[in-house]
Amino acid sequence: MPQRPSGPVGLYDPSYEHDACGVAMVAKLDGKPSHETVERAIVALENLEHRGAAGADPNTGDGAGILLQMPDEFIRGVIDAELPPPGAYGVCVCFLPREEERRVELEQLLEDTVRAEGQRVVGWRDVPVDKDYVGITANLYAPYIKHLVVAASDELSTDQDAFERKLYVIRRVAEIAAGPELVVPSFSSRTIVYKGMLTSPQVLGYFPDLADPRTKSAMALVHSRFSTNTFPSWELAHPYRMIAHNGEINTLRGNVNWMRARESQLASELFGDDLQKVLPIVRPGGSDSATFDNVLELLVLAGRSLPHAVMMMIPEAYQDRDDLPEDLLGFYAFHSCLMEPWDGPAAVAFTDGRVIGATLDRNGLRPGRWLETEDGWVVLGSEAGVMDEPAANVKRKGRLQPGKLFLVDLERGLIVDDGDVKREVAGAKPYKQWFDEGIVHLADLPPAPPLPKPEEPLHERQRAFGFTQEDLRVLLAPTAAKAEEPIGSMGNDAALAVLSDREPSLFSYFKQLFAQVTNPPIDSTREAIVMSYGTGVGSERNLLDETSEHAHQLAMQTPILFDRELQQLRHVDSSIFKAHTVDITWPIAEGPEGMVTALERACKEADEALVRGVNILILSDRAVSPERAPIPALLAVAGVHHHLVREGTRLQTGLVLESGEPREVHHFATLIGYGASAINPYLMFESLETLVAEGRVPGVTDFETAQWNVVKGIAKGLLKTISKMGISTIQSYNGAQIFEAVGLAPDLISKYFVGTASRIGGIDAGILARETLDRHARGFGLHSSDDLLPVGGVYAWRREGEHHMWNPETIALLQHSVRHGGQPTYDEYSKLVNEDAARRATLRGLLKFRELPEDQWLDIDDVEPASEIVKRFVTGAMSLGSISRETHETLAIAMNRLGGKSNTGEGGEDPVRFKPDPNGDRRRSAIKQVASGRFGVNINYLVNADELQIKMAQGAKPGEGGQLPGHKVDRYIGSIRFTTPGVGLISPPPHHDIYSIEDLKQLIYDLRCANPGARISVKLVSEVGVGTVAAGVAKANADHVLIAGHDGGTGASPLSSIQAAGIPWEIGLAETQQTLVLNDLRSRIWVQTDGQLKTGRDVVVAALLGADECGFSTAPLIATGCIMMRACHLNTCPVGIATQDPELRKRFKGQPEHVVNFFFFVAEEARELMRRLGISKYEDLVGRVDLLEADGAIEHWKGRGVDLTHVLAAPPVTDDAPRRRLRPQDSPLPGALDWTLIEAAKDAIDHRMPITGSFDVRNVNRTVGGLLSSAVTKVHGAAGLPPGTIRYTLHGSAGQSFGAWLAPGVELSLFGDANDYTGKGLSGGVLSVRPPEGATFKAEENVLIGNTVLYGATGGRAFFRGLAGERFAVRNSGASAVVEGVGDHGAEYMTGGRVVILGRTGRNFAAGMSGGVAYVLDEDGTFEQRCNMGLVGFDAISEADAIELHGLIEEHGERTGSAVAARVLDDWAEYLPRFKKVMPHDYKRALAELEAEEQRGIEPAESTGGEGFVTTERSA
Predict the structure, then answer these.
(1) 193 forms bridges with which residues in the sheet?
(2) pTM to 2 decimal places
(3) DSSP string spanning 932-967?
(4) What is the pLDDT of residues 631-676, one digit of tens each?
(5) Catalytic pick from 21, 94, 603, 1133?
(6) What is the rounded CA–CA span in Å between residue 784 and residue 786?
(7) Which of 1127, 1152, 1090, 1158 minimizes the C-alpha distance to 810?
């Protein structure tokens, strides 16, 4: 395996690697160092092994390590020199090169630096390692590990903090001088780190030091890493110097940029002149965790306590909270003026050797469980059960909570409560007073005079800024009417911006990045409590100091400013704030060259303004006129932002934009992402005023309302955009540059958009200026004199509009070919698509094949037959619900006839389709999709699949969930999705059981248990870094990965997502192929691609770039009759495809034959190309990029700048390296506990005989009951076994997904505790969990089960005697459950079933809950404050409810021995009135309507098309 590249190779870039992991800590409360601490920590580490990973070499891990207090006795025993007392010497752990000459140089450098800084070198020691313990790859790249012992100078020997600072300075000076060859895992007088490219069980064996009984510590931090890539990297193993991190920092690029900008202002009394020596603070090339560690270390060494620094960097969600103390709110608000949050899902364990603790991100997206024992041990881990502890010795159990600190103070010998830590930190200085006195709200500024009306007519200025009729009609008017972004459907088949002749704006070249697999997107609507779009402008001060002046910021509610607010800002003049306006237009007389000159002038003017003390810069293009053209707003903002960052002055000012250009969500997102704090879109508001005056905004007659609606709609859209990346606050998104450019030249990027990926080259500043001048000329009458705006035609085909590949001509030809025209008409269609449509719109249109000379072409009969090639084709995931039953089944029949595969989509499948039809046709979809909503997913569905596809993202709206409006949920759809007819359905943006790569590994394992014979697929969407995610997917044991293009279809999506997220599949597929081949993972995984595939040529290009299989969605729909009306989301499809309306469905005329014909035509075209290439079998096409080249004949004036070198790069590997899948993955199922359970249940499964059994369970036993349920369902179908047929009792800590998919007739009773995802997909079985026998703690006060329990459960019952974590019963659609307290977001997205909570809930209960009922025991009357009342109300408890509730609590008591159940039942009359019945409004209405229908005698099986069930989504 090659060494980890230091820079990009082809499309692979190491900076996009991700990691996730298991983390644990062990501490002894008495603070006495012992070797037992080390032994316990190693046991915990080994029990986390399944959370780590190995790559192509199974004995080389992704990384594991341990951090300890300085083992003084051991160090004295192994160093042959006199050592000063503990605390007056430090140990530098060095990873040095193996090459002796360079190693000696670096050792000398370290010694010289120690002496130069006035400290004393005591001596060196070679750290013994046992190479037999590790893999070939790890050994090949293992560093030479040495310890350098340094003694403090007399001056520092009594001041350990000062000595720690000096050791930090020595390390940084040496690192900067040595470059990347010197790696120092730790250099401290308090702590020491042992780590490497190891698996968890190898750590102890590799480092004999750890087995030495003199190695003693009172605490230990351990970590097991799962990286998406397998390139050897010893440095990237954790722990780092202060932290071990399980998670992902989504805002990293912005955090690093801002940190760099802050360096010019840093000053510290404690560091003095030494501070300049350590810059830059962030070591280049580090991971997100390493970077976080760099900054945390500086904050602590410069004088803040460790908890203080952690609270600054990972603040909890504090805005609009009334349950936090005033001082703490003041602390967070004050620190928001110093630093933006490091945002993303994270569990961070931290220590400085004196305290050890952990914290969780604001949304609680990582697991963490802790316990304290009677004999004074504290253990925290990513799972419960990392250490076996006798029940009687357990004092209490808990979990990490969102935004909360867990802290063990070893000097004081106690666990410090979150509230106490924060009270101490927040009360140290008058932060609240400083903030209240320093902050100025925009609304409080004095009114300013309005601007004079512009002289030029509105339509001229609109045209000059590129406005179209579509912008006004499709985007602006609907947003002004409804205060939300408009929805569209079908995919984006328009030309890429770099190939468009319609002068698209610069915004169109940028594509939003989004979270997939390695971190989750957030639901910005249902989880609004963690979101914030507040922003501010002003200057920042020295980060290492805290004074009242630090709070001088001008705060704004949203980043979008009305005209009057911008005027207030422009005229602000006080001792604190001073504004200056910089013109960003240029005289057209200067031609295209004038644009760059004008931008340079603007940067110079900004510099001069800052010297005068200006701290609000307003970039304005209001001076646009017939003589002056505007610099593209994004170029101006990014250009000035990066110029000021380079100058070191960026934090002295806020950047505000006043521009006529921005008018849609994506425009605002890019401007904020590249540094603008606030934006005044004056021309958008002026256009809106005219629309209102002309009566073109439905239901809105006054401009003020329309204006507020637009701001609200765009602000909501912005939150949705940032949440796609898992970011919660606009403050963190600002300057974070979370975009990829498609079609911009390298020099444009390196100057104005530093750090943004742009991998295919493209247009330069000259072409950008030329297009701007063309627009300007069109606007001011030089090309056109009429008042009409251009039509646009971006969102739908228009005759004079943007080029679309699906247009009346291509649609008509395709439909004619599959019905009557045959191959000749298809050939006409494919010629039109290949030579015109695709060439003008796609990257593959810029490629050509390296064909053989005609006399060397193969005979067509020697080429693999079409009947074999079509088996590699699949249809896309279109859910039953988004399309009609007729369409869904037609596609399935066609694909089964071909031997290809159809995909259920995320709406489940009718079990009657699992059996063949009388004529032999099969309507069963081979691919069953598992998406975030889990609709229709139960054990029976999973067992009846050839492939199970985990949908991580969708090309048309990656990072977002889905929504099926209530009018599409008729009785039939509702029955298949296990939901209520007429009630709208929400698919969450994330899978709530996939917050990281190791979670995906767990779901893959769960699905393998549900159906051991199915291949497991993961669907990703093309974006920069998708190759590294695909490598992680391969390491997580998936069999198949799908790379979807940005242009795929959708039944409903916000318009900005269809246009602005994701990139072409050609880039994503090529990156995936290159990365998998480089990592030696390609041989074990199938790769598929999809996204606007239309012809055999598309298929061959995809194969050459690395696709084993190809997916088609829009084309087969068009073959069956779709005419691209783009009305799928309205239920009004005129051809009966995308509708549930029974009358419209009668119009569906599609036949399976149409689809079969289409695919055979495609395969025949592919065969013709294969023979010209000299390739006889499809499998030999895969990965042969050498058969592709850029087409020199293409003379598109913009396309000429496109450079596809990286897309066509062959990875630098040996010729025999596998380019396609050659072997299956290793099964993780042997050794599963379930095989024992199945063996014991043979009589029950074969003869339905009742059986019982008792077994021990550990946290490494995952998905207990999954394989058993699969075995039961294969024999007995959905009905399973009679209740109680299989009854098993288990003892211990169960691993993740305990009781997943549990089938009817199976009961599991656990004495112990369980982890995350307990009861996932519960399908009719019964679960109970209670504390172990002999436990002395109060169950109702201790955490018993993990997060995301009963996710997607469809039936059965569950009883938990104790507390649950976050997201209990998320998306429950049929199970009944009782629990004694839950964390945040309980009953989220629930659509059915019953939940009883016999204790407190966390915040945001019932968010997105649209069905089912929850009963909450509200003893102190405060539940309403924690319940999200957006979709639900509190109903009176009827007599029938009371009987149901009593029965569930009674069963809870019987199954778990619950003391709470006993107390409630003993005093039933007293307790019943304290229960709140949580009832969704929509559900209540739908139930009433269904009851009325039944009374009228409407047949339940009859599809009503959802008539009468119209629902609007409320913010929830």
Answers:
(1) 67
(2) 0.95
(3) TT-TT-SHHHHHT-SEEEEE---TTSTT--EEE-GG
(4) 999 999 999 999 999 999 999 999 999 999 999 999 999 999 999 9
(5) 21
(6) 6
(7) 1158
Last residue of a domain, one of 734, 751, 779: 779
Q: Are residues 948 and 1078 in the same domain?
A: yes
Mapped onto helix, strand or coil, the DSSP state of residue 1209 is coil
- Coil, strand, or helix at residue 515? coil
- 1203-1223 pLDDT, tens per residue? 999 999 999 999 999 999 999
Is 985 a domain residue?
Answer: yes
Is residue 1182 domain-shared with residue 1256, that is, in the same domain?
Answer: no
DSSP 1402-1422: -SSBTTT--EEEEEEE-TTS-
Cis? peptide before 239, omega within 30° of 0: yes
Check: CB of residue 1456 under 8 Å from CB of residue 1328. Answer: yes
| Phi, then psi, of 478 in degrees rounded to 5 | -65, -35
SS3 1051: coil
State the chain's mean pLDDT as an integer: 94
Whether residue 1455 is contained in a domain is answered as: yes
Mean pLDDT of 1096-1120: 98
| Angle, alpha carbons 1090-1092-1096 (nearest 5°) | 80
Question: Would you state the pLDDT for residue 879?
Answer: 94
Could you confirm whether 94 is annotated as catalytic? no
**pLDDT digit string, tens, across residues 451-481:** 999 989 999 999 999 999 999 999 999 999 9
Statement to judge: residues 1141 and 1280 lie in one domain: no
Tokens of 254: 């912005």
807 Rama class: left (phi>0) / alpha (psi -120 to 50) / beta? beta
pLDDT confidence of residue 2: 57
DSSP 1302: P
Six-digit token pair at 631?
């610099």
Which CATH number goes with the domain that contains 1106?
Answer: 3.20.20.70
- Tokens representing 1240 are 């014991």
pLDDT band, very low/low/confident/very high, at 253 (cuts 50, 70, 90): confident
CB 1344 within 8 A of CB 1360: yes
The model's pLDDT over 977-1018, given as tens digits with 9 standing for 90+, comes to 999 999 989 899 999 999 989 999 999 999 999 999 999 999
**Cα separation, 518 vs 1000, whole angstroms:** 9
State the pLDDT at residue 65: 96
- What's the rounded Cα separation, in Å, for the pair 241 and 301? 12
Domain-embedded: residue 1033: yes
> Residue 658 contacts by C-beta under 8 Å, 6 or more apart in sequence?
566, 581, 618, 619, 620, 621, 622, 680, 682
Per-residue model confidence as pLDDT tens digits over 1271-1295: 999 999 999 999 999 999 999 999 9
pLDDT, mean of residues 1131-1146: 94
Strands (E), 1109-1230: 1109-1112, 1188-1190
- Domain with 1344 in it: what CATH number? 2.160.20.60
What is the DSSP track for 1014-1049? SEEEEEEE--TTHHHHHHHHHHTT-SEEEEE-TT--
Q: Where are the alpha helices (DSSP H) in 554-632?
A: 563-570, 593-611
In which band, very low, low, confident or very high, does the pLDDT at 491 lie, cut at 50, 70 and 90? confident
Q: Give every CB contact of residue 130 below 8 A, 6+ residues apart in sequence.
A: 205, 206, 208
Distances (CA, A) of 1301 to 659, 688, 830, 1388, 1423: 55, 53, 46, 20, 32
- Distance (Å, rounded) from C-alpha 329 to C-alpha 403? 13
> Which structural domain, as residue segments, surrounds residue 619?
459-487+514-541+553-779
Q: Specify the number of domains making up the chain.
A: 3
Residue 1502's pLDDT is 38
CA–CA distances in Å: residue 626 to residues 462, 661, 1160: 13, 16, 57
Query: Residue 226 phi/psi, 5° resolution?
Result: -125, 110
Using only C-alpha atoms, the chain has a radius of gyration, in whole angstroms, of 32
Length of the chain: 1516
